[in-house]
Structures are given as structure tokens and as C-alpha cells.
Specification:
The protein is an alpha/beta fold. The chain has six helices and nine strands; from the N terminus they run βααβααβββββαββα.
């Protein structure tokens, strides 16, 4: 949704393994200065924080949590600034491969990563931490596996609703090419907690939760019973790249994990998008606030329900079916080429998640 599309030149400092010439990086030519003038991290705590009278849930708490983390950790802004600059360098170095559309590393450091897992290829191993009070909250392996299946659909162009993508957006639909595999499930009985605050307390055994396991190498997902907030309930939230490793990962309400009567598993897709450095598609602000992606249209608000195309804001049609909007699960079915380009540098050389050994091409 960038107003000024990033120009594509060649990068001297990074060598990336690519499958074809359209992705090659020239190591002999330096990058021009990177424009960071539009970079932001803080957003208004009250914007999009409270569900409307028609809604029962606050779908995502990631931006509000980020505001809180920025206040608690004075060094986090600079880390995220450096990650963004690294991201833009690699995007600028990448030759264009798609059709235009619609107009450091360093965690907060704390865990011993130990030995890396033995998975091969573009596989992200996932550890689920299920923290429950009742048996219904202790979700089954089948429900967890249905969540893994949904992620593998969404990140590999297999989403069942993708045939409904409007023609103007079809040219920028992208296959992220990442697979998820369940490594293990950690189950923690906590018969005192009827609900959890969205403050990362569930990520610590000392607070009745479960400690993160080698987050440099694994995607940690915490599943909890209830997260009330502002008269609604939070479906999930994520930590952006750059935060403390001890809290790295995503959190989900058990009712919105995998295939349930409430969900088809797209809350996790949305939150993993944040974990891979994607912002909300509307930029969490007005028409001038950006998600740093060139091929997503400008908007000044989120969408909910299953919107009828077209929905127009900021002079263009909203991409309501993008996983980083708030539409209902069955109506979310795409990432874009530009969003994939933002994900890739996080796993590349010098990227925050480089230890995972993933290459997004």
C-alpha cells in the first residue's frame, strides 16, 4: 500500500540463493539510500481496539501489544527500525517478478536455542502450548492438526476460497511457499485461570503458563481459554520480529484454533503474518498510513463479515480477502507478491529469523 513504489535495483551486501534469473542479486553494485521517512511503529491504542456493537470479538491485539512493548523497552524501536531498513534493502535489491496492482538481527535475547531442529526445506516446525482449565479447552490433537492443515493451505496457494479472488487482485496473489509441521504439543493444566490478559503471562510457567521453547528455531503457539478486552474477546495476537525471544510467537483463543464451529483456522494465518513482519492491510490509520506493501490498496479501516466486492475506501477497492484484513475466515484467502517480499528478508541472511534456515523465494 505504499504511495511511492519501491524501485528495484541491485544489492551488494547480500547474496541470496535463487531459482531463476528474475530473482538474482548482483553482488557488484551497491544499493542507493533507503528511504525510511514513512516508518512508524506506534499506533493509536484506541483505533480499532474496541469491537463495534455488531461484533463480539476484537480479532487481533498485536498492534496494541506492540505499543505496550515499545513503552516498556526503549531499545525496541531501534531494533524494529533496523529490521525494516534491512527489509527494504532486500526488497529494493530484488528484481521485479510480478504485475503491478492496485495503483540485525537481534531479539530481546534470553533463551538458549540449543541445537536446531533437523527439518529440511522450507519447513517451520511448530510447538503448541495448550493451557487449559476444563477438558473442552484442552483441544485435541485433531483440532491442532486441522490448524496446521489450514496454514499449509494458506501459505501454499491451496486455500479453498481463492477462486473467488476478484480479477483485479488475481495478478498479485502469491504462493509464500512455506510449510508448517507439528513438532510437539505441551499441555498445561491451570485450574485457576478463567481468562488471560493479553500481556504474555501465558508464556511463562512461573505465571501459570508455559515457557517458550527455542523460539529461534520453532514457531511457538500458545492456546488459551479466554482473553477478554474492551467488552469483547481477543481472538489472537502476535509478536513482531525484534521483540524478546522469551515471548516470541503467537497466542490464540482455543475456540479460534483450527477447524471449530467458530473458525477455519485463519486467525493463526493472520497472526503468523504479523510474526513474519506484515502489518494490517489498512495500516492501522487513515489513508496516508501505510502497511509498507506496494501492491495492497490504500484503506483507512478494517473490514468485517464477508464483504461484497467492491468495498471502496481511499479511492480504491479494498482487498477484503487478504489475510491481513479482519473479514471472516471463509472470506480470507490471499497474500500478495509484495507481502511475500516483506516476509522473505526476515528469514534471509542478517534477518531476525535467519536461524530458522528458511528461504522464501
Amino acid at each position: 500500500m505504499r504511495k511511492l513504489l519501491l524501485s528495484f535495483t541491485l544489492l551488494a551486501l547480500v547474496v541470496v540463493a535463487c531459482q531463476n534469473n528474475s530473482e538474482e542479486i548482483n553482488p557488484n553494485q551497491e544499493i542507493a539510500n533507503i528511504d525510511m521517512s514513512d516508518f512508524y511503529v506506534y499506533t493509536d491504542d484506541d483505533v480499532f481496539a474496541k469491537p463495534s456493537s455488531e461484533e463480539k470479538h476484537t480479532k487481533c491485539y498485536s498492534m496494541q501489544l506492540l505499543n505496550q512493548k515499545l513503552k516498556e523497552n526503549p531499545g525496541l524501536y531501534q531494533k524494529m527500525y533496523d529490521i525494516e531498513k534491512h527489509t527494504r534493502k532486500l526488497i529494493k535489491a530484488k528484481k521485479p517478478t510480478g504485475t503491478p496492482c492496485c495503483r540485525n538481527n537481534g531479539g530481546g535475547g534470553g533463551t538458549d536455542p540449543g541445537d536446531p531442529p533437523t527439518y529440511t526445506g522450507n519447513t517451520i516446525p511448530v510447538i503448541f502450548h495448550v493451557i487449559y482449565r476444563t477438558e473442552s479447552e484442552n483441544i485435541s490433537d485433531a483440532q491442532i492438526n486441522s490448524q496446521i492443515a489450514a496454514l499449509n493451505e494458506d501459505f501454499n496457494l491451496k486455500n479453498p476460497g481463492r477462486n473467488s479472488i476478484p480479477g483485479e487482485f488475481q495478478s498479485v496473489e502469491s504462493n509464500i511457499g512455506v510449510n508448517f509441521v507439528l513438532d510437539r504439543v505441551v499441555r498445561v493444566l491451570n485450574n485457576k485461570k478463567r481468562s488471560w490478559r493479553p500481556d504474555d503471562s501465558m508464556k511463562f510457567s512461573s505465571q501459570g503458563g508455559s515457557d517458550a521453547i527455542s523460539p529461534e528455531y520453532y514457531l511457538n503457539i500458545w492456546v488459551v481459554n479466554n482473553m477478554p478486552y474492551n467488552g469483547g474477546n481477543i481472538l489472537g495476537y502476535a509478536q513482531f520480529p525484534g521483540g524478546d525471544w522469551a515471548t516470541d510467537g503467537i497466542v490464540l483463543d482455543y475456540r479460534f484454533t483450527g477447524n471449530t464451529s467458530y473458525s477455519t483456522g485463519r486467525t493463526a494465518t493472520h497472526e503468523i503474518g504479523h510474526w513474519m513482519n506484515l502489518r494490517h492491510i489498512w495500516g492501522d490509520g487513515g489513508c496516508s498510513q501505510d502497511d509498507f506493501v506496494a501492491d495492497t490498496p490504500d484503506s483507512d479501516r478494517y473490514n468485517s463479515g464477508c464483504p461484497t466486492y467492491p468495498i471502496v475506501h481511499c479511492g480504491s477497492n479494498d482487498m477484503t480477502m487478504n489475510f491481513m484484513d479482519y473479514s471472516n475466515d471463509p472470506c480470507l484467502n490471499m497474500f500478495t507478491i509484495g507481502q511475500k517480499d516483506r516476509m522473505a528478508p526476515i528469514f534471509a541472511s542478517g534477518g531476525f529469523r535467519e536461524p530458522m534456515g528458511i528461504t522464501i523465494q
